[in-house]
User: Fold these one by one.
Assistant:
Number 1:
Amino acid sequence: MVIAGPSGAGKSTIVRRLLAHRPFRFSVSVTTRAPRPGEVDGVHYHFVTVEEFRAMVDHSELLEWAEYGTSLYGTPLGPVLDVLEGGEDMLLEIEVQGAALVREVYPEALMIFVRAPSLTELARRLRERGDTTDEAIERRLEIARHELAIADALFDYVVVNEDLDATLAQVLDILDVRRRRPQRST
Ligand code: 5GP
């Protein structure tokens, strides 16, 4: 299952809550960006250098990868294969270009796009987070505009995250509906 959506839409919180409710295995991405306060290497991300990242790309070790802002992000392939082979479900929290690549490899994957009620609200949430510069926020808003434009066509569901509890309930409903349809059980 893939959860995507603009930075600041509330994806990470929803993912955290979802993991407490459903037995998904979380895919820990590799990234070249610096850790934010509180982020732990190997838990939130594997933090790597650009050279290390490039080597993973060259060795086909990533299921997908994308440049986002000024950093690189990718999903390590090995853990995804291991988890799926073990009959478990994997949860990927990634941006839209990467989600499009996952769609090509796993057409049956459930893909949910989480968005904020508006771009104004998204900007407010990004500023409130207080860990990014104005320039980085502007860049993230620009990417968000682009992501919103293509979300409808690419994702199975677009969920507006106005209230966290309601959004989580909506995602759990989607999963329940999905489970009752055995032909698309991934
Ligand atoms: P952040 O820097 O805020 O943690 O993440 C920036 C963006 O990169 C978010 O939209 C996040 O979902 C996305 N992202 C995180 N990991 C991956 C990944 O492995 N692949 C892709 N394509 N995007 C990712």
Number 2:
Amino acid sequence: MAKAKATSFFCKECGYESAKWNGQCPACKAWNSFVEAPTVKEEKGAGRVSLGTRSPGQLPVPKTLSEIETGEESRYSTGFSELDNVLGGGIVPASLILVGGDPGIGKSTLLLQVCRNLSADGRGVLYISGEESLRQIKLRAQRVGEFTENLGFLAETNLDTISEILKERWPQVAVIDSIQTVYREDVESAPGSVSQVRESTNVLLQLAKGLGITIFIVGHVTKEGAVAGPRMLEHMVDTVLYFEGDKSASYRVLRGVKNRFGSTNEIGVFEMCSEGLVQVPNPSEYMISGHESGSSGSVITCAVEGSRPMLLEVQALVCRTNFGMPRRTAAGTDYNRVNLLMAVLEKRVGLKLSECDAYVNIAGGLRLSEPSLDLGIALAISSSYRDIPVSDRTLVFGEVGLSGEVRAVRQAQQRVNEAVKMGFDTCILPRGNLRGLENRGDIRLVGVSNVAEAIRALAGDEK
Ligand code: TYD
Ligand code: MG
């Protein structure tokens, strides 16, 4: 009888390897995430990443910091300042960057445009697609604009071929679209499986560090099926960016989730147009552009994502429930947080919300759960409940505690500055933030210490 093939079980979420099947992954605690895959047959040492250079047989000598050469500051721009920001100031040579996101969100389009910008700056770029034919790429490229000759395209999925070509052509930047379509011949499982994705990334990591090529890897986020999610790649790459947004809306947010060369949580905002992605340099204006003044239940608040303040519209609709069990929904923010704020409004302010349905929405489809949005959500609910509109020249922010107190939040100055810049005339904020705040415009700053006071401050507005 033929000997059974050597297989192992891998967690689809984090890549944890185990000899037997587990219901729950011991490493990342995901349930039902184990799949069986052949283990990789490897010659000794193959697939291991060497981050330095050394001749065989010679042991590396540890170096002190002063002995390590970094070269001059060599970051360069992607041609999109929004993307440069998220990367921490441009592309770091020889880095491995994972761009994740739902299918159809615009990853290929973004990277094609980045390739175009880089090649227009005279850099050698190779765009390798395993998902689209060269003809399809050309059709997309024609929508996006003019291309120079520095940019090569390749439709290829065999990683051994790709790696030969990268060694020979030696571009400065390469794009692999997507990691789920490439495969290594010596790994027996299908493209997109856990072991293929992991081993392929290993090869790309070696190429990036060994040859000094910056490689962008596209990864689709998929929860089930045989396709491995890019979650387990996060450990291996230098930078992880997620491209998100409401597919039905045209804006897209690029979020830095991990960055070895800069801060995380920075975001970049783009809009998908008929000629590809366009940067949105002033997201506040964009996010509140649909705001209708004079309707109740709508409040403008300010979130700080990374280092950037952004105005948002919180909408609430509160109406009497027809059933014994009130319905509540929260789109774009934490459902439990909304329930908690409603309980605070009921108990501390006396609104009879337990008899009401409530629907809360962050307009524009952004997903946020910053505590500073609390006061905006609470005031939107109270405004809808009492059917009294809030002035559209009033900005509200603050964290709400369980006893109804309004707590100070970080980066209050930035939020106030953004309100001044956008022409607001009143800002309702935590009293704890008032001290030390510099008022650079003629905005009226109203410090409040609890929710009831905030509601009274709004009522004073309307007089
Ligand atoms: P794509 O980049 O193919 O997504 P991904 O690589 O993340 O799967 O984006 C495809 C979507 O973008 C598709 O719905 C069409 C739309 N699109 C535009 O609206 N304008 C454009 O100029 C391009 C190229 C695509
Ligand atoms: Mg694509």
